[in-house]
Amino acid sequence: MKKIIAPLLSLFIISNLSGQNLNIDSMKNLLRTTMDDTARINLLNQIAEPFQWNIPDTAIKYAMEAWQLALKSKSPEKLIQEPAGTLSEALSAKGNYSKALSIALHALQMADKESISLNYFQIGNVYFYSGNYSKALEYYFNTYKNLNANDNFYEIVLGVIGESYYHLNNLDSALYFINKAYQLDKSRKRHWSVPYFYMAFIHSKKGAYNEALEYFRSGLHYAEENKLFLDIVNGSNGISDVFKKMHNSDSAIYYARQALTVAQSQSLNPGVMKASGLLTELFLKINTDSAFKYQRIMLAIKDSLFSEEKIRQLENITFNEKMQQEEKLQAQKAYQNKLRMYGLIALLFVILLAAFMLYRNNQHKQKAFNLLKLQKQEIDYQKAEVEKTLEQLKSTQSQLIQSEKMASLGELTAGIAHEIQNPLNFVNNFSDINTELIGEADQEIDKGNVAEVKDILNDIRANEEKINHHGKRADAIVKGMLQHSRTSTGQKEPTDINALCDEYLRLAYHGMRAKDKSFNCEMKTDFDSTLPKINVVPQDIGRVILNLINNAFYACAERRNLEGFQNLQGLAPYLPTVTVSTKNSSDKVEISVRDNGNGIPEKIKDKIFQPFFTTKPTGQGTGLGLSLSYDIVKAHGGEIKVESREGVGTEFIILLQTHNS
């Protein structure tokens, strides 16, 4: 942490620049004769550091040269850190937040354990200066948790956390952290203006203007003493704002003009915008020409700082950062999931083709072959599209969702094959019987026995009705499978929740049995017969129910394996049980899936709905099932809850409104 404190203190507590000129001049002279890259990088950064907030253009010039040299060096991960900090601070002072964030994130990717807290702090600063205070707090607290109260840098971190809370209008938290920084600063020989300024801001917001002015004047005195131009601008703007609230226009104009003069001379664009905005308001009722003059200054700066393009660049870099972090965590799983997705797609189409050929009794082999070719071409096309889309970071989330859907469909296929075999057996058996009956009818016709022929025809008609019934049943199963695999249209329709639960319970059980022939589980149902049909997207709610039932079977299988080993010691045998129930509760429908598996440990219960979190071995789960289930239920205006005890079991409860649009 000592390596971090020294460079960070220079961001806020800089010695009198006029006293450093000789030292800086000597370093510039030394730079002309130094050939070693490492020494040049250190010299360039030492020259740039004192100017990062006072004369940011000068800081950017020297720090950028150091940054570029470090990138080309043999050890860029070590040499890049200090120039990156100086560059991101100076660029933020100029209002170039997207470039500042890009450099800070680049440095974070190359950071080691000793410098990572510094990187978090630098990234937090860029978010703070760009107005994203919630995001800034995340990074500031990452630095804060690695400090103790004896660190000199402790005061600065307390201060910036307090500043962020202030801008989020959380005055209680702001006052807590700012006051701690203020009390620490009073005990030091050299002082930092920020705690004084924010004590002033808080008192000003509470209407205590005289106390606010005292804090501002103290902070401004220390800023002028240290020749910190950014703090001089902020302090002058703050005093002007308090005088404006006190309706003392002359004093307000005086301090705003002082802030504008210093900010313009040092290219501190955010300070220029604040001061010119204050002067525009103050002159509106006094001198409209002056008001328009300052308004033009403010609008020109505002346009350069907050153009749509810069905001878009900042959002893009923020998104890229999240995706890069996620890719580092999921690097090994990504390749396995990709192969698994392709395998499931291929398996799906093979099963669909087999079911179609059985249903049509091999009557159109050529047509099926052509269809297979078309499907293969479609797979090749989709594969090319997926590979192309995977190169675009913004599409990664939707592809992972599709992968999870295909995974759930893969678990259904064995159950569907079992379900479709029963009606197909009926179709084949009754077709064979009708063939025999037709032969008998021919014989009776030859004998002239009309009454017997009519009886046989009645039997044939009855058998044809059964063939038709079971054919439609098989057709409904295939259509249900296709509907599950198809991307949801989002169209809600009246749905029988009891039938949906019963269907997916059976399919999930057969799917589990197909993967593990030794698996057995008692399935209990308790469906409320008074349950009304409710408007839902059946594919989506079915996917949620299937995911919960599959998880319940998996938990029972895991406990069975463990209990089976323990049973060798003479313990009572474990009986896996999964219970699915529904309940009509006034204006809500309650769906419950309960198992007597191992239960969910208390320490991970809060994480189970997070994307990519899974307790299954690598390759056996994407970690998206419960996250997607949570989103689907929320999209329906419902809620999903979990109750679990380790060693006893788990119950998931879905609550859906009976009347929803």
Structure description:
- The protein is α+β, with helices and mostly antiparallel strands.
- The protein folds into four domains: 125 residues, Tetratricopeptide repeat domain (Serine Threonine Protein Phosphatase 5, Tetratricopeptide repeat); 97 residues, Serine Threonine Protein Phosphatase 5, Tetratricopeptide repeat; 151 residues, no CATH class; 163 residues, Heat Shock Protein 90 (2-Layer Sandwich).
- 70% of the residues lie in helices and 7% in strands.
- Strands 2-4-5-7-6 form a five-stranded mixed beta sheet. The chain has a two-stranded antiparallel ribbon with strand order 1-3.
- A hairpin with a 3-residue loop joins strand 6 and strand 7.
- The longest helix is centred in the middle third of the chain and has 52 residues.
- It is elongated, with a radius of gyration of 36 Å.
- It starts with a helix and ends with a strand.
The radius of gyration over CA amounts to: 36 Å
Provide the CATH architecture of the largest domain.
2-Layer Sandwich
Class derived from helix and strand content = alpha+beta
Q: What is the number of E strands?
A: 7
**Which outline best applies?**
elongated
Give the strand order of the largest sheet, numbering strands 1, 2, ... along the chain.
2-4-5-7-6
Total domain units = 4
The helix count comes to 24
Largest sheet: 5 strands, mixed
Summarize the structure.
With 661 residues, the protein is an alpha+beta fold. Helices cover 70% and strands 7% of the residues. The strands form 2 sheets. Strands 2-4-5-7-6 form a 5-stranded mixed sheet. The chain has a two-stranded antiparallel sheet with strand order 1-3.
